[in-house]
């Protein structure tokens, strides 16, 4: 589960950086990357939720 949390943190930092570039500088490519990363982050968060539920039952 720690590895999953590390992946989530890395994806969030990537999303944050790209979203800031889009918002501050109007960088369209950064916006595209941010949207792609948000989809990856969504999958990781679903995995985390599943792992968290399994851990709480054990």
From TrEMBL:
<comment type="similarity">
    <text>Belongs to the histone H1/H5 family. HCT subfamily.</text>
</comment>
<dbReference type="GO" id="GO:0030527">
    <property type="term" value="F:structural constituent of chromatin"/>
</dbReference>
<dbReference type="InterPro" id="IPR010886">
    <property type="entry name" value="Hc1"/>
</dbReference>
<dbReference type="Pfam" id="PF07432">
    <property type="entry name" value="Hc1"/>
</dbReference>
<protein>
    <submittedName>
        <fullName>Histone H1</fullName>
    </submittedName>
</protein>
<dbReference type="GO" id="GO:0003677">
    <property type="term" value="F:DNA binding"/>
</dbReference>
<comment type="function">
    <text>Might have a role analogous to that of eukaryotic histone proteins.</text>
</comment>
């Amino acid at each position: 589960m720690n590895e999953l949390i590390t992946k989530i943190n890395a994806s969030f930092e990537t999303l944050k950086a790209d979203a800031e570039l889009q918002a501050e500088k109007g960088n369209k490519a950064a916006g595209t990357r941010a949207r792609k990363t948000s989809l990856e982050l969504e999958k990781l968060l679903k995995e985390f939720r599943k792992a968290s539920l399994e851990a709480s039952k054990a």
